[in-house]
Structures
1.
Amino acid sequence: MSRLTVLAGPTAVGKGTVAAWLREHYPDVWISISATTRPARPGEVDGVHYHFVSEAAFDRLVAEDALLEWAVVHGRARYGTPRTPVEEALAAGRLALLEIDLQGARQVRERMPEARFVFLAPPSWEELVHRLVGRGTENAAERARRLETAREELAAAAEFDATVVNVSIPDAAAELVELMRS
């Protein structure tokens, strides 16, 4: 079996963008697809970016213990990692990555302490704010909520085994893969 790598960090730091870069440029890396109760953003595809599920379907996943971790993120939508695909990827010896939030990373640490935990950090607070505003997917109230959460998430960086600063997507992805292969 291979060792699971968990990538977490604050909102708008580029976790999803780094994961998308990995999918395109590092086909040997298996990346988990999370389930979520939030609606798809423009351009997101069900089963590719997330499994978009109803509240009732998510409740069933929780009740069946079919999620490795799950959390309510930003006080709104629930996100979770389906357990079976992760176990299958690890059993097959694949380089396996979870791209999740801080709450989820803490749950995975409880269940799989042998996993490698990598914190994706922004180059600066100002850059994080710029990225969140620049993506234009949240209204002002949602941005404020996410930035409040981001301050708390940034304070948790010391809980992780390694930190990758996301100055550029290709560099952050390459550094992450190097950690996964070590």
2.
Amino acid sequence: MGIGFCVLAAPEIALGAVIVLGVVVIGVAIKEALDAYELRHAYPEESGTSRGTKVASREAEAQREPKLKPEPAAQDRQPPVPPAPVDRTGRASCEPVPVPHAGEDDPHNECADKFPPNRYPGMDVLVGGVRFDALQVGVRKLWEIKTHRFDLYSDFVRDREIEKEIKQLEAERRAAAACGYQFVVGVSTQIHKDALLQADQSLRVVVTGCRR
């Protein structure tokens, strides 16, 4: 023990021992780094756990954020409808209520005012919660006026137009009948009248002769 201590106590030997010891320490550090490198490549899913956790948390947070509904397109917005008066039972009133014409179609509005003739010129009328083009003077008769150029449509467009009109006219006729009114459809041409009657013979259709 004494000999070993003295040998190591010599300056030149002590310096060499320190150098050797330093090399050993560096070698150990390099080996540990290599082992860690091999471990990361052997188990890549473990090395990316923390990063994946952050990404997943961001995605979860994004999913929790409320999604805003897109604004409806302008053509999807319906024009406001005047509120229909109600009777004591809470149902739409059968009392006729004049309201401004729905559209700015001057030829159509002129025909609706003059042909029946309209009890309220310049106005539509609400009856039973449904809008009609005119209430005829002196009688309980409601009118739906059609002035579009039906004769110029192709056969395909005519068929689609008649399908759409029949649905509208049936709803208007039911509302008129429920309130004790007659219901008449005014069209500009005989061809349009024939097409409507072919689809529903129970309709009352009159040729107004109104032109656009």
3.
Amino acid sequence: MASVRKGEAKALLKQAREAWEAEQWQLSADRYEEVLRYYPDDKPSGIWWFDAALAHKFLRNWDKAFELGKEAAARAPRGEGDPAYWNLGIAATVLREWPVARDAWSGFGITLPEGEGEIVGRFGMACVRLETAGEYEVVWAQRLCPTRARVVSVPVTPGRRFGEIVLHDGAPTGERIVDGQRHSVFDEIMLFEPSDLPTHAATLTVPAPDDLEALVELFAERGFGAEPASSVNLLCKCCSEGSHEQERSVRAGTQQVSLAALTDEVRSLLDTWAGGGPGRAWRDLELVG
């Protein structure tokens, strides 16, 4: 009986790999799982558990990615950057299984801030490529853990907001270079936590670049965001995935600025800014998202 099962397993593995190459993720996962019912602990089983879990990650079936990912990680060496831990960390984070997520990141080899529960650390700045109904926008974000980041740009894509927390993948798909420092671009997996800060737009008269910087600082002091339209660079998706040098565009003159702030505070903040220097003015404030 065992020899028959091994013959069947060989055929199932072939089907699993062929389905994988064709990006038929559900079929591939099903075939791997059939083999694993008989051979959960064979020498190559760690790879099968990993591929099955990864297929479910691509399908956004997080319960299965979590279940199979735990099996893959249990067969992977700790502290050596094994991707089984990374994928488990993502699935555990989606499900808010914080003890498992913490163990997975540690198993990968990442030092976490001390504590229990949700991971809120400072893992540096990065860029995240948001995807909304087939539209893409790269924004700046502060990484809170290996897979979560808080958006600190004011997105121009409808429905996206400053301050929202997104879940991003681990493999960089491009980079942005600012003052010689390289920042990876990661693809968004999902919106993890929405933001309650609406987006407004206003036309500002800015006598000097320092006046615009003063606006940005004023809004930042309140935990809000302000970003001139001139800082938005339009790139096709292919070009966006390359390496690009960027400079923050801070210039004088009349220009539109996106503002992320509570609606009942945005006017008073603009008035405070306008009264803080000669020649400053604003008009045409509107709610845009």
4.
Amino acid sequence: MARRQRSRTRRRLTLIATPVAALGTLIGLVCAPAQAAVWNSCDRWGNTALNGYTLYNNIWGSGAGSQCIWANSGTNWGVWANHPNTGGIKSYPNAKKVVNKSITSLSSLRSSYNVTVPSSGAYNSSYDIWDTDYDYEIMLWMNYNGAVGPLGSFQGNVSLGGHSWAVYKGDNGANQVFSFLRRSDSTSGTVDILPILRWIKDTKHWMGNETIGDVQFGYEITSSSGGMNFVTNNLTVSSS
């Protein structure tokens, strides 16, 4: 499996890229839904807040092509991306919900998702969950396609939060990364995130009672040559 790179949305990499061309903007808008989206952007770091979620275009990797994001709401949005067939993650367009609660103070942390993704290209549809200090990254891959793979070494299989996962543990030099790859692809469903966090903390002792900051959901795109659409039909993140 290919080595996974970090996906950051708040700590942006210092890479500088040429802005997306006007043609990319036009194509991105054409690929948006028939109804007029309430927001769209083809900027590399384009972002906005809608309905309690923050949306990011987030083209953070090197060698990226064009990418445009649109949104009807914080829970219904999509991306048109045209990234070349080369290695390395190009982007992680996503919607973020802030939690800011410690694991032990959480009584519930759940999410529902419904997506439409391409049958070709190289990508994963994933949750990216961070503690407030960005020392720990927990990824939940709900589906994936093409030459992509997690960082680190295989730790075994586990059933948690309503799904069966292959678990990987690694370190990218700045933070620990725990990746849970669903053992069969899913484009819709509900995931109970809190049991996963408790398993990492209490069963494996890989982290302490961290304060969970961001729960992000999006598409980690390595390649989408020719232009492909990734649509979040519905996404909800709730905590208590």
